[in-house]
Amino acid sequence: MKIKFLSTLMLAVLMLSLFASCSGDKTSDEEDTAIRAAFDEAYTVATLFSGYAANVYADGSIEVEYDSEYSPTLQYDRFSLCSTMSELSEMVELYFSDEIGETLMATEARPGAPLYLEKDGVLYRFGGFVSLYAVDTEYIEIVSVTKESDDKFTVSVKAEYPDFYGEELATVTHDYTCEKIDGVYKFTGEFPLLADIAIDEMLDDRMLLPLG
Questions:
Q1: 105-145, pLDDT tens digit by residue?
Q2: What letter would DSSP give residue 98?
Q3: Fold type of domain 29-202
Q4: Longest Cα separation, the chain
C-alpha cells in the first residue's frame, strides 16, 4: 500500500512539473530579445500616427490649427523607409495585427482630413499635426516580457514623464500583447502610446511634448 501511495505521489509531482514547464511562463533569451526589439520598432511606428492638430507654444499654450497644408514626409529622417502610402502600410503590417493596422492607417488629423495622403507618388503628412515622436521614446522602459502561451506574450512597459509645469514625475504603465503570427512578432489588441495615457489620465489633458 505504501509503495502504491508513493508511486501515485511521484506521478502527481511529475505531472505538476510537466504542467509548469509547459505553462508558458518562461520566456527564452532569444524570444525576449526579439520581442523587445519588435516593441521598440512598433512603438516608433505608432508614434507616427499619434498627436494633435495644434500649434504648441513655449509657454505651454495650444492653438488648434484647422488650415494647415500637407507637407512631404521626405523632409523627416524617420520616414526614410516609406515614401508612399503603400510603403507606410507595409511598415505598419510588419509590427501590428490587421485590426490595429487599419486603425492607424485611417487616422485623421481632424474630421475629414486624413493624417497621411499620397499625391503624384509622394507621401504627405498634415502640416499642423503635433507628433509625440520627438520625446516619447526617451522615457520608456520595458519592465518584462512574459510568455502566456507558445505564441502569445505580455510586454509590460512603464514610463516616467516630467511634469513641465512642476517638478513631479508622472509614472505610466501598460501591458501590451504580442503574438507570433506566421513566424513574426506582432502586436495585437490595443496599442496606446504611454504619452497619450499620461496626457489623458495623469496630466489633466495638458500638452506634454513639443513639436515633433
A1: 999 887 888 989 998 988 888 876 666 554 566 778 999 99
A2: H
A3: Nuclear Transport Factor 2; Chain: A, (3.10.450)
A4: 87
